[in-house]
Amino acid sequence: MRRGDVLVVYSDGVTEAQNPQGEMLGEERLKKIIREGASAGGEVLEKRILQFIQEFTRGMAQTDDITFILVEYV
Question: Which residues are within 8 A (CB) of 36 and not within 5 positions of it... i.e. 6 or more apart?
């Protein structure tokens, strides 16, 4: 890793989080959020990921854990 890099490690429960229509969040949506938010820094990216998951799932009960670890090289 180099200064400014961000590493996100996540459980399958993140990409398998479902909205009310039964659609999964998916890897592509998650990667898009990471790409768009990484330059803002780890704290901002963490909040964006959590907010996106909350908005996507719209309060649906999940069947798996939603866990991720974010590491930023500063």
Answer: 48
